[in-house]
Amino acid sequence: MVIWPDKIACPIVISFDLDGISGTINRNPASKNLPTLMSMREYGPSIATPRILDLLDSHKIKSSFFIPGFIAETHPELVLDIHRRGHEIGNHGYMHEPPSTLNSQEEEKILKQGSEILKDITGQSPVGYRSPSWELSPDSLEIMKRNNFLYDSSMMGNDVPYLIHTKEAPIIEIPIHWELDDHPFFNYIPFLNQTNVMASPQHVYSVWSEAFEGLYKYKRTFVLTMHPWIIGRPGRLNMLDKLITMIKSFQGTSFMACKDLAVLKKYDYI
Q: What domains does the chain contain, in order, with CATH numbers?
């Protein structure tokens, strides 16, 4: 049995990984020479994110945006807008580097670089991290804890926040899952041989709404991860609007940023 504080029945996190062009360039540097691919990815920060911010405002929801340092450097006004609207900004590497592809020294250097860039823009150091491609290295959690991170959001070992012990100290894990991610359903990039049939918004709505109802039933947490270049297309964003409206109709749902959910971990709710 889970007993949340403040009459909360199910914490809800609507989060975004603002990758822009960084993810595809990191995966294959030659992709930067493909204007159509670059335009599709740049759609995320340039067109979709302002639209997403307005949607969140309309629902009075505070969210978490995980932003690579490169995207922050190239879109500082957007990062400031996200920050000024009261949303959390988390560390997402520099050029969307999966920690599993780095050695320990490279990983820590990139983590610090991303945090410094975000702090220079917003005046605040991020307290949360989400790994690009959702794969950590064996050293990741210790590196995060050594650099004063409150939580990580890259692992799938539970459906409520949980503690992971490191040599430094325990760190809070805000768990995620591919079921609650837009990428597996909508991603389509022929240049990278990613040509799965795209799901319809109606199908994704059914998957996400069923996932929510199950998590609500068991009093767990609903953590949704999206990418503006994917979810920000009008038909998909309209589906997200409907999903949020449906979730809000359930008594005891509470929308919050990842860092706020991490703070709830101090309660003995498991």
A: 10-264 (3.20.20.370)
pTM tops 0.90, yes or no: yes
Q: Which amino acid, residue 24?
A: T
Q: DSSP string of 176-213?
A: --GGGBSHHHH--BGGGTB-PPPPPHHHHHHHHHHHHH
Q: How confident is the model at residue 111 (pLDDT cuts 50, 70, 90)?
A: very high
The pLDDT of residue 2: 64
Q: What is the DSSP string of the chain?
A: ----STT-SEEEEEEEE--TTHHHHHH-GGGGG-HHHHHHHHHIIIIIHHHHHHHHHHHT---EEEE-HHHHHH-HHHHHHHHHTT-EEEE--SS---GGGS-HHHHHHHHHHHHHHHHHHHSS---EE--GGG---TTHHHHHHHTT--EE----S-SS-EEE--SS--EEE----GGGBSHHHH--BGGGTB-PPPPPHHHHHHHHHHHHHHHHHTT--EEEEE-HHHHTSHHHHHHHHHHHHHHHTSTTEEE--HHHHHHHTTS---
Up-side HSE of residue 53: CA atoms within 13 Å toward CB? 20
